[in-house]
Structure formats: structure tokens, C-alpha cells
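Self-study notes.
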Amino acid sequence: MSTRKTSTKKSVEWTEGRFRAFITSTLRGGFRRYPPKYEVLKEALWGKKVNSKSGRMCLHYTCNECKGQYPAKEVNVDHILPVVDPAIGFKNWDVFVKRLFCDKENLQVLCSKCHTKKTKQEREVRNATTRSSK
């Protein structure tokens, strides 16, 4: 396993996994400010109504899967085609960046429950692919 040395006061060695996690996290942080993400949210805006949990007025968005209306804290902007294809896995950084910063046609708003269900299905495909390749 190769390591990377950083040039700080204390020399720290990073494994390839740690380095990849750092780069992935940094890129996903940039996606939080990606304009097409906000276009998709705007299109899914249902309007204002009382949040049943807080009792306050807030914006609600329509889930693309179950069609329910949810407050902003309960929705996610999801990639329809996952950034990392669960059947193939990580290919290279060019593919990762291209799929992360995709057109808005590959983005959808999902409630937390539907997003969790979709993520679980993708994880099952990834795990089945990993097991069959061993």
C-alpha cells in the first residue's frame, strides 16, 4: 500500500484510502454550492406550509419518488445515476468529477426516507458485485 507524505510541521503519511476520502469530501463540499443543485430544488418547491414537527411555517419540497411534501431539512438532492456506479465502482477522478457535477437532468429531490431506500439498494448492488468478484 502506498502512502503520501504531506509537508506540514509534523510529517504525516496518508494511505491511498485516506487521500481518496479527503479528495472526495472536498469535491462533495463544492457540490453543496453547485448552481444546478439549486435549480432542481427550486423546481421541486411546493410552497410554504406549517412544519408538523416544529409548528412553524417553512418551505416544503416535493419528493420525486413518493410525491410527498417535506421541509428542506428532510430532503436531499440526489444523483439519479450515482456518482460512483455501484456495479463498476470507482474508475478515476475524471469520471467522478464529471458525474458529480452533472447537468440538472441527472439530479432529483428525494425525501430522506426515499433517499435512504435508494442508497440501500445501491449499496446492495455494490456489495453483490464485490462478493462476486472475489
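Second protein, same conventions, sequence then structure:
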Amino acid sequence: MPKLDNQTVQLAMVAAVALAMMIQAIVLLAAFVALRKLAKNIHDQVEDIRSSVMPIIDQTRDLVTRLAPKIESTTSDLAVLTRALRDQTADVQEAADEIIARARRQASRLDTMLSSVLDAVDRASAFMADTVAKPMRQLSAFLASAKAVVESLRSTEGAPRGEASRRSSDNDMFV
């Protein structure tokens, strides 16, 4: 076997280090090529996305530029309209409150008037009942007594009283 001296060992180590560095260089070169290919692929995809998105962004920017003044004027018009509606709503609410208050006052007044009229009618009917009905009852009673007297005088003297009253009641029943 060959003699392993210090120089041979150093030479073997230098060769191994050189071989390791050569492999490392190849691996780094392969990684560089792969990363470069990946970067190119990503760059192409970004360019595709940019080419498809940029027109939309430009159109949106133009649209916003054109619509911004209109949106601002519409917003200010809406603010003015809202203020006017608030004012009108307050006016309508005030008018409604006033109408309701007047209606309540008129309803109370009408209630008072109707109550006084109904009280007067009640008093008048009571007066009429006392003034007219009492004499009418008295007159009716007087007429009934006169009729009874006339009937009793008209009846036959021999007929019992029960038959005479039965005959008069039979005549009353006939319709």
C-alpha cells in the first residue's frame, strides 16, 4: 500500500474540498437557474394580471373622476332636501298638534252643549209627563167611571152583575 504521508493526506483533503466546492457550485448554479426561471414565470404572471387589471383600474379611475363632482352635488342636494323635509315635517307636526287641540276643545264644547240639551229635554219630558200625563190619567179614570156608570144603568135590572160584565168584555174582545 502506498505510504500515507502528510502531503498525501493534505492533497487528498484539498481534492475533497475542491470536489465539495465544485458540487456546491453546481448546486448553487442549478438553484440560481431554477430561481431565475421561477422569477421569470412569476414576472410573466404578474404582467398578465397587470395587463388584465390595469384597464379596469384606469376605467374605474376615470369613472370616479367623472362622477366625483356629481356625487358631491347630489350629496349637497340631499342634505338640502333633508333639511327642507325636516322643516316641513316640523311644520306639519305643529299644524297637526294645533288641529288636534282645536278638535279636543270643540269636542269638549260639543259634549257640554249636548249634555245641556239632553238635560233640557229630560226636564221638558218630565214636565210634560207631569203636566199632560197626570190630567190625562185623571180624565181617563173619569171617563172609565162614567162608562161604568152608563153601562150599569143600561144593563138589565134582573141580570146578575157578572153576566153584564162578561157581555161587555166579550164585546171588547171582538176584533
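Instructor comment on the second fold: Residues 6-154 form the longest helix (149 residues).
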